[in-house]
Design a protein that fits this description.
2 copies of one chain form a homodimer.
Chain A lengths: L4 H9 L8 E3 L6 E3 L5 E10 L10 H17 L4 E11 L4 H17 L3 E9 L4 E10 L15 E5 L4 H11 L5 H8 L5 H6 L6 E4 L4 H16 L3 E6 L7 H6 L5 H10 L6 E5 L4 H8 L6 E9 L6 E5 L5 E2 L24
Chain lengths: 343, 343
C-alpha cells in the first residue's frame, strides 16, 4: 500500500504525549523540551541494514535495537533518559515494516518513559535508523571513561559473548536458543545499573565493540588524570558466560569462546572500574536488579609500551584475540559479523 | 589511505572546545551539556547521497547543507542553536571526502557558535549524514506553526525558486550562476531572522518542501486554535525572485517559474504570518539583516473543502503546480529533483 511520508509518520509514530517535560512534540519544525536541573546527556548512534543487522531481521527487533544501543550510551554515563529523535531512511513507504519498527522502538521507549519527540523520514536505498537520545544526570555524579586508577578492579555486568555467538550461529544456520537471539536482537540497556553505580564506579563504558576495545578506551582516557599509562590484566577464566552460551559453545575450542567473549562486541553490558574494597557495595546495589557483577582483573600503572588490555589464559600466559574489537571500517573483532553499535 | 574509525574522527572532527556550556564533548559515551534556562529546541534531519544531493557534490557543500537544513528548523522556531550531533555513514574510511565534509560542517557550525558534541561514524553503502541540533528559546517566545489567524498576512524572507532552478540547470548540464549554485548547495539558515521575528510572527515554518506544502502545514496546524478551516490566497506575481533567477529563468514559460518558486522546495527561507498592521515592524527588524520581507497574500477563514493554499495568477485565476511539494516517497513538487530536507 502506497502512503505518503506524512501518513506513514501519523500511522506509525504519533502517540499521545508521555512526558510533562515535553512542551511541544512531533509535528513542528523542532521539539520543545523542558530540560530542568542538572546536566543534559546526549548520544547519537545509527543502524544500517546489511551492516548492523542482517536483512530479514524482524522490524520490531531493529526498532528495539536502534533505541537500545543509544540508551546503553546513556546508561554508561549514569544518565536517566528522557527524549529521543529518529531519522529513519527507507527505500519506500513500507507501511508494514515501519509499523513493526515503530512497535519495537516505542515499546522500549515507553518502558523507560522515553518520548519520541521528533525526527525525519526520508527515502534511502538501504534501511537506516539514526537515533539521538537525551537524558539527565546530576552534575558531579556522571560516570565517565577517565576515572580508572591503578589498583582498581575491572568489573562487568551480566554475561559476555552471547550476541557474538548468536550471530555466528545465525550465519551458520544453526538452531538458536531464543535467549541468545534476544541478546543479539533485543539488548537490554543497563540504565538501572548505570544509575546504581553513580558515586561508586570510577570509570564506566558500555560494551558495544567488545571488552578489549572498549576497556582499552577507558585505560587510554584515564591515563592523563592517573598520571601514568595504564594496563588492565584480565583473566579469561573469569569472563562471565551464560548457561545458554556455555551449552551452545560446548563444541567450540576454548580459544574461540574467549574471542567471542573478549572481542565479539554487541553485548551492551557495562564495564566499570572501582577500588577493590567497593566490590561488595557494587554487588549490593546491582544484584537486587537481577544483574550479576563479575570482577575480571585489575588496573595497573605501567610503561607506555605496556599500556592497554592484557588477557591471561588459565595458566597465566598472555593471549590475544584474532582482532581486538570492532572498527567501523577495518572490520570485526573476535568473529566475522555485523558492526556492533556505539559508543 | 586506510584509516580506522577512531583516526578518521580524530583527524576530521576533533576540535578545541567552543562553548562554555559543554561540560563534556566528543569522546565519551555521551556528551554532557548545561542546558540553562528556557526551553530546549531539538530537530533531526538526514541527507542521503543520490536522494538529497547528487553524487559528485563537493563534500564541503554536503557538510554545510547537512547542518544548515537542521539549523533552518531551529530558525523557524526562533531558537538559538548551541549543539549538534552527527551520525555519518560512509562506504569506507574516506579521509579526503570526510575532511571536506568536516570543513563544510564545522565552518558553518563555528559561524553560529554551534559545537559538535557527539555522534557516530559507521559503514554504510551510501553516504549519509543524520544530524541532530539542539538550541534554546525563551518560553513564550517560540515561533510555532499553529499561530496563523484569519486576516493575517503571509510573508516570506528572501527569494524563492533559486535552489530548484539551480538543480534543474545542473541536471541539464547548463552553466550555472555561482550564486544560484550556492542557494542549492550552501543554504544560509535564517537564524537571525527567526530570532528577530520572536513576539511578532504568529506562525512560522522554514520552506524545505516548497511554499504550497509548507504553508499548507501552517494552515492545517492553525485551524484548530483558529476555530475554523483556513485558506491562504497567494498571488503568484508577488513571489520574490532573485535577479539571478530572473535572468536564468528568462527562457522558461511563466508557469514553469511559478512551479519552481511555489513548489520547488529547498529554499530554506522562512514563511511566516502576522497581522497586516505589523508588516512594517517585520521589515524594520529584518531589513537591517539584509533580508527582504515580501507579503504574498492573506489567511482567510473558509469551509473545510476550501482549506489550504490557493495560488492566483496575474488575472486572478486559480493556478496549480504540477505537484504541490516534496513528499519523501511520492516524489518531487514543481520539478524533478533530489528530496529537499526537513522540517
Amino acid at each position: 500500500m502506497a502512503v505518503s511520508e506524512l501518513e506513514l509518520i501519523r500511522r506509525c509514530f504519533e502517540r499521545r504525549p508521555l512526558r510533562p517535560d515535553v512542551a511541544l512534540g512531533v509535528g513542528d519544525d523542532a521539539a520543545l523540551l523542558r530540560p530542568g536541573e542538572g546536566l543534559l546527556a546526549a548520544a547519537a548512534d545509527a543502524l544500517t541494514e546489511g551492516v548492523h543487522f542482517p536483512p530479514g531481521t524482524a522490524p520490531e527487533a531493529v526498532g528495539h535495537k536502534a533505541l537500545a544501543v543509544n540508551l546503553s550510551d546513556l546508561a554508561a554515563m549514569g544518565a536517566e533518559p528522557a527524549w529521543a529523535l529518529l531519522a529513519l531512511g527507507l527505500p519506500g513507504p513500507e507501511l508494514a515494516w515501519t509499523e513493526g519498527f515503530a512497535r519495537g522502538f516505542l515499546a522500549l521507549a515507553r518502558s523507560w518513559s522515553v518520548e519520541l519527540v521528533g525526527g525525519d523520514t526520508t527515502r534511502s536505498p538501504v534501511r537506516t535508523a539514526a537515533v539521538t537520545v537525551l537524558g539527565r544526570v546530576p552534575d558531579g555524579q556522571v560516570l565517565r571513561r577517565d576515572g580508572a586508577r591503578p589498583g582498581d578492579l575491572v568489573c562487568v555486568t551480566g554475561t559476555l559473548g552471547d550476541a557474538a555467538l548468536a550471530l555466528r550461529l545465525l550465519r551458520e544456520g544453526t538452531a538458536l536458543h531464543p535467549w541468545l537471539r534476544a541478546r543479539l536482537e533485543r539488548p537490554v540497556p543497563r540504565l538501572a545499573e548505570g544509575r546504581a553505580l553513580r558515586g561508586l564506579a570510577g570509570a564506566c563504558i558500555d560494551l558495544s565493540d567488545g571488552l578489549v576495545a572498549d576497556l582499552g578506551r577507558v585505560l587510554e582516557a584515564s591515563a592523563g588524570a592517573a598520571g601514568t599509562p595504564l594496563a588492565a590484566r584480565i583473566e579469561l577464566r573469569r569472563l562471565p558466560a551464560s548457561s545458554a552460551f556455555r551449552e551452545a559453545a560446548a563444541a567450540l575450542e576454548g580459544s574461540r569462546c574467549w574471542a567471542l567473549q573478549a572481542a565479539g562486541g554487541d553485548d551492551y553490558e557495562l564495564c566499570f572500574t572501582l577500588p577493590a574494597g567497593r566490590l561488595t557495595e557494587a554487588r549490593r546495589r546491582l544484584e537486587p536488579l537481577g544483574t550479576p557483577v563479575t570482577a575480571l582483573g585489575t588496573v595497573e600503572a605501567t610503561q607506555a609500551e605496556e599500556a592497554g588490555v592484557h588477557l591471561l589464559d588459565p595458566e597465566g600466559h598472555p593471549w590475544r584475540p584474532p582482532a581486538p574489537g570492532y572498527d567501523a571500517f577495518s572490520g570485526p573483532g573476535g568473529e566475522e559479523g555485523p558492526e556492533p553499535k556505539g559508543p
